[in-house]
Amino acid sequence: METAKKECTQHGLVVSCIDKRLTDDVINFVTGEFDMQDCFYQFMLAGCALGADVNHEWDKSLFDHIGIVLELLHGDKKKLDRIILIEHRDCGAYKKYLGKYGNFDQHNPAEQERELVTHTQYVLKLADKIELWCKSQQLHYIPVISCFLMGLDPKENPRQILR
Ligand SMILES: [Zn+2]
């Protein structure tokens, strides 16, 4: 017998990298941290915020999808309560697009700090852009936008990037 799905207390959109090492970790983190099992939409692009920054078409796709999510939820008399941007360490797209500058030694604390700073720069830029876009859509609310940097070890808590 199928158990009835619980009502969602909030709805979200998760934007993350396509990296295969983290697909389950992303879902586990979001369902645990935000209590949003079966209550969030997902959009993935290589490099997450950096991917959107360097590829115009990907950026357009992302915003098209945010628009679709809003349409679906609003059609259902719901809101998009939050947008969660999840960057991750040792990202292949950062190496591809930033070269040496995007390659971070995972065993060197100074490099890990540089990695955090680099991801912060791109993810905050995207968060601001999403917020501005939401304002331009004349919603009667603005989704909460949260940003994280996830480690490869699922035991390591994703680090929240404050904005
Ligand atoms: Zn990645």
The N- and C-terminal alpha carbons lie at a distance of 44 Å
CATH superfamily, please?
Carbonic anhydrase
> Number of helical runs?
5
Sketch the topology as an H/E string, one letter per element: EHEHHEHHEE
Main sheet, how many strands, which sense, barrel? 5 strands, mixed
Q: What portion of the residues fall into strands of 2 or more residues? A: 15-25%
Name of the top-level CATH class: Alpha Beta
Question: What fraction, in percent, of the residue positions are helical?
Answer: 40-55%
Q: If you consult CATH, what is the topology?
A: Beta-carbonic Anhydrase, Chain A
What hetero molecules are bound to the protein chains?
zinc ion
Strand numbers in spatial order across the main sheet: 2-1-3-4-5
The CATH architecture would be 3-Layer(aba) Sandwich
Structural class call reads: alpha/beta
Q: What shape does the CA trace take?
A: globular
Count of beta strands: 5
Mean pLDDT: 94
Cα Rg: 16 Å
Quick recap:
Helices cover 45% and strands 17% of the residues. It has five helices and five strands, in the order E-H-E-H-H-E-H-H-E-E. The mean pLDDT is 94.
